[in-house]
Amino acid sequence: LFDPEGLVYFGYPLVAMGKTEPRDTSHLEGLRVPQLFVTGTRDRMGPGDLVAELADRVPSGRFEPIESGDHSFKPLVATGRTVDDSIRTAAALVAAWWSAYAPGGV
Fold first, then answer.
1. What are the tens digits of pLDDT across the range 9-66?
2. What's the rounded Cα separation, in Å, for the pair 50 and 54?
3. Residue 103 has pLDDT above 70, yes or no
4. Are 61 and 97 in contact (CB under 8 A)?
């Protein structure tokens, strides 16, 4: 049986491709573990405002945006950042978040 201590979602697909309405998230809202949502600020499948609202509704939820990232965290060329930069940022966000929840630390 799967019994997680916490959950991390990278680019949670809240809005299906070609749709405008968010998916039902009641299954996430009923979970009683910390949940972290990491989403690119240009992610059309996980618009930041909607994902932030979802994070506010789940127990111990948190939203962390990846600046200029799309669904796969690829930033705009004009930023001078790379996908690797975005992935490193996401990893650091997860490590910092988890250190607050992990039994015994990271």
1. 999 999 998 898 999 999 999 999 999 999 999 999 999 999 999 999 998 999 999 9
2. 6
3. no
4. no
Residue 71 contacts residue 40 (beta carbons within 8 Å):
yes
Locate the domains of the chain by residue range: 7-13+29-99
What does the alpha-carbon distance between residue 49 and residue 63 come to, in Å, rounded to a whole number?
10
The answer to whether 55 and 37 are in contact (CB under 8 A) is yes
In sequence order, the 6+-apart residues with CB closer than 8 A to the CB of 77 are none
- Token output for 77: 């060329």
Q: Which residue has the tokens 């996980």?
A: 46
Residue keyed to tokens 């809240």 = 14
